[in-house]
Design goal:
This protein folds into two domains: 67 residues, Phosphorylase Kinase, domain 1 (2-Layer Sandwich); 214 residues, Orthogonal Bundle (Transferase(Phosphotransferase), domain 1). It is 30% helix and 14% strand. The protein contains ten helices and eleven strands. Helix 4 runs antiparallel to helix 7. The longest helix has 20 residues. The two termini are 16 Å apart.
């Protein structure tokens, strides 16, 4: 598969076109994955997730037309920073928007399964878009509201606990997918995995944004998997990171999914963590992204090679 920058003729509007080679999909038995990905795209309606505008086929390819994000990959922005790390306010902002995107996906019964900086795109205004759902798992979800009981002590202190909205995909998956350094332990061991694997990946992402590398990377795949299953989580003392950030990472990188933060009441536990104290969740879309040491450079038509319009477009998909 490949992704191309395309323009709607006569409009000047730019879009991203994901082109999937039919022969490759058939040879690798990936047709069902493409159908699921297309179905997932059609469900999405959220500012931090892509919109599927249309899909069509050519004789050789299946094509999906989605939003073009001129900020490029979060991975590229991170790679350009001094020491390849973000300051904590930037890491907090990006992590918070990822939490909101994952919470929405989980509400729809979607386990993302491929969170990593390469799959987080940046819009022109600096906000995120989670992309690439070819590894995602679609199941059912039963959103529900939990009302917290008010104890007499709490009532006297006038501390109000609003109801919590909880929604988790209900069917565990057993398939082995993901990107090596971001894979959760329960995927490696073959235990059925739930949406808690996305919260593990969030912990790895936060670590990478703050420390410039992932915590369990080994010299090869086997060593990386061994580290994920057995190596102690350590925080390099050479890079100053707040206690709250370390505590959140530690909570997200619990090997036992049932004790992992986010596994019991979904995103609520994570959103209420002290690391996110400065985030006003309902208005996160209105926040200005913190300034990066090396600012985002927007990409556009000028930076792309010219391609002739493709002939032979046939039926919709």
């Amino acid at each position: 598969q490949s992704v191309h920058l395309v323009e709607l003729q006569g409009s000047g509007e730019l879009f991203a076109m994901k082109a999937m080679d039919k022969s490759v999909m058939l040879n690798r038995n990936k047709v069902h994955r493409a159908i699921i990905e297309r179905e997932i795209y059609s469900l999405l309606d959220h500012p931090f997730l892509p919109t599927l505008y249309t899909s069509f086929q050519t004789p050789t390819h299946v094509c999906l037309i989605t939003d073009f994000c001129p900020g490029g990959e979060l991975f590229a922005a991170l790679d350009k920073q001094p020491l390849k790390i973000f300051r904590e306010d930037s890491a907090r902002f990006y992590a918070a928007e990822v939490v909101i995107g994952l919470e929405y996906l989980h509400c729809l019964g979607i386990i993302y399964r491929d969170l990593k900086p390469e799959n987080i795109l940046l819009q022109a205004d600096g906000h995120v878009v989670l992309t690439d759902f070819d590894l995602s798992f679609l199941t059912s979800s039963k959103p529900h509201v939990i009302k917290h009981s008010t104890s007499l002590k709490r009532r006297r202190s006038q501390e109000f606990m609003p109801p919590s909205f909880v929604s988790d995909p209900s069917t565990p998956s057993n398939s082995f997918v993901g990107t090596e350094e971001y894979i959760a332990p329960e995927v490696i061991t073959g235990a059925g995995h739930t949406s808690a694997i996305d919260w593990w990946a969030l912990g790895i992402l936060l670590y990478e944004m703050l420390y410039g590398r992932t915590p369990f990377r080994g010299k090869n795949r086997k060593k990386t998997f061994y580290n994920i299953l057995h190596k102690d989580l350590t925080f390099p003392s050479s890079i100053p990171v707040s206690l709250e950030a370390k505590q959140l990472i530690h909570g997200l990188l619990q090997r036992d999914p049932s004790s992992r933060i986010g596994s019991n009441t979904g995103a609520n536990d994570i959103k209420e963590h002290p690391f996110f104290e400065d985030i006003y969740w309902p208005l996160i879309r209105c926040m200005s992204p913190p300034e990066l040491d090396v600012p985002l450079k927007l990409i556009g038509k000028e930076s792309q090679p010219k391609v002739k319009p493709e002939e032979g477009v046939i039926d919709t998909f």
